[in-house]
Model the fold of this input.
Amino acid sequence: MAAYLCPPAVIHGEHAVKTSEIVEEVRERHPDAAWAPRIDGIAASTGIETRGWMLPLESAVAPGASGALSAVGTGPAREALVRDGFTEQDADRVVAALEAVPAPQTVQERTAPAWEAVQAYGERAARGALQIAGLDVSDVDCLITSNSTTPALPGLDVALANRLPLRGDTTLLPASQWACVAGTRSLALAADLVAADPDRVVLVVISEALSTTYQPADDTLESLIVRLLFADTAVATVVTGRPRPQSVLRLDASWHHTLPDTQDLHRLETRADGTHFVMDRRGP
Done:
């Protein structure tokens, strides 16, 4: 049984970030990095001059709202200094100096605004896809979502079910761990669903703020490449079991395949300063 796809709605990040801006920011922050002499060539090899982010570059590189003592607090720090022989006056001066040292943004500071943007962009893409397909939100029988860069529970599926809103009996299938393969896997799953019921209408929505993996303090080559490659985008499409006037692609067959023992090649790691995308050159 074939599946039929309507043209996708693609919503690019509204904030244009130039490669030259990224190179300038990284070079200033990491002048002694091993790859610093090659940064211009590395940047040029990507072939990317501008990418769209949901939030501006300034939001990614800004320091956190709290100072360097935010983790322990000024009180315990002052007490420790006094116990170590500092006078009260000297301890106050040291604490004030440490408080003035900028600290990295916390996970919450990086993720919370991006999560709001991911929901808004996902909604725009969903509405655009339905409009392209000539359908209404009430026609959707199943929603497949993917969002890996801004972990949240409830996730994008529940957010869109309320924002659109969808029928109460709409099947929600969140795929928060699919990341880079979300596009193909979600379409394969949608094809399976409409094969079981050709009258079913499946809405697929993927919304990712990959700019959250831009970590200013990370001086690894892998982090530099991530900075230069990634953009923020939301995309949505409608998959049906019967052809529609708006259908542009027929999917005659689909299959699922997972490469064993590859889980360490590309991954997201949540650290104190946020989400890091870790790549291994052995990966596909």
Observations:
- The mean pLDDT is 92.
- The chain is about 35% helix and 20% strand.
- The two ends are 31 Å apart (CA to CA).
